[in-house]
Amino acid sequence: MKRLCLTVVSVVLVSLVVGCGPTTPGVVGMPLASATTELESAGFRVGTVTYDDGASDATGTVIAQLPEAGERVPGASSVALTVAGPAPVAAPNVVGMDVVHARDALAQVGLSAGQPTERPAESVGAGRVLSQVPPAGSMASPGSTIALVISSGPDSVRIPNVKGRTEARAKERLKAAGFKVKVVRAASSKLRGTVVRQKPSGRATPGKTVTITVSSAGASGQAAEAGAEGGTGGGDDAAASAFEQHKSGVQITGEGTVVRILADDNDGDRHQRFILRLSSGQTLLVAHNIDIAPRVRSLGTGDAVAFRGVYEWNAEGGTVHWTHHDPDGRHSPGWLKHGGSTYQ
To answer: In which element (H, E) is residue 224 found?
Structure first.
């Protein structure tokens, strides 16, 4: 008799527990994500999810649930769902692949790649996948598009302008910027060992080869004195003679008045620039390398400046550079004198 009473009590208690449990919310017709949120908010878990790719409902919509809506079940129970459409697939990891193989890997699981976007990358070769969205392992519906970001290779940088530099200085600057250097030699009126051409110029990716053409003829060792070309080496006559004869690579000495101060040239080595007018009326652009020599201080229009440097011809009167010592020892020392100070 005791055993029968205990059994009856147990059945009654189970019935009370089931009957007093929470009511299962209805999620049929909802997208799977919304249904999941609704169930979890009511204290339930999403149980087994099956897919029916023959259903006429919108893909991803819940078309059946078990327990059904309104049933009272114990708290924290799971609800099995049936969803319209094909089962999702896990996105494969295509990071590091080239684009062709990445597309093949996605196609094998029923996914596709959209038009990739490019981004520079120093350590990843051009055309290889840098990232994917959604990431590897994410579940996606068959036919979904995986967005890919691919490397365009290292970003391009400015190639230093090394024309007019010595071979050693040109190599140093180009290699410091990440470029390889190829040297060819050609006869030129420029100083022997001076870069007369470079290719390419502008911008390129580090690691590219820049070809520099170096003068193999012309003045040897140090700059030729203007006197060797028929000038005096100093004063207006030397500058006038070099200008009239279109001479370059000759060293001249002179003095003039500052008529214009220009902005520094920061392309390659930094140069302080100003224009002198000689007593003859000829103008000279002075390009003073302030990476090697100190800047001329307190320079103003109307100031007198004496100079010694290498003359290069141009139609405006010419340019004087190498107005300082040469660290490579290929040029005779030049200088500028202003306000009682010498800059070299």
So the answer is: strand 224-225
Q: pLDDT band at 279, cuts 50/70/90?
A: confident
Lowest mean pLDDT among 29-33, 231-235, 326-330: 231-235
Backbone phi, psi, residue 36, to 5°: -60, -45
Q: What is the pLDDT of residue 35?
A: 95
Omega cis (within 30) before 134: yes
pLDDT given for residue 143 in this prediction: 86
State how many domains the chain has.
Answer: 4
For residue 61, what are the CA distances in angstroms to 44, 47, 86, 90, 207? 19, 16, 11, 19, 54
Where a domain ends, among 108, 129, 151? 151
8 Å CB contact between 337 and 286: no
Three-class DSSP category at 248 = coil
DSSP per position, 82-127: EEESPPPEEPP--TTSBHHHHHHHHHHTT-EE-PPEEE--SSS-TT
DSSP 14: H
Q: What is the pLDDT of residues 212-249, one digit of tens each?
A: 998 876 443 333 333 333 333 455 778 888 888 888 88
Of 84, 115, 135, which closes a domain? 84
Between CA 261 and CA 250 the distance in angstroms is 24
Which residues have a Cβ under 8 Å from the Cβ of 198 and sit 6 or more positions away?
159, 161, 162, 163, 170, 210, 211, 212, 213
pTM: 0.39
Domain span at 78: 2-84
Across residues 76-89, what is the average pLDDT?
90
Cα distances (Å, whole numbers) of residue 323 to 209, 254, 281: 31, 12, 21
How far from chain centre, in Å, is Cα 193?
33
Report which of 298, 291, 276, 280 is spatially closest to residue 322, judged by C-alpha positions.
291
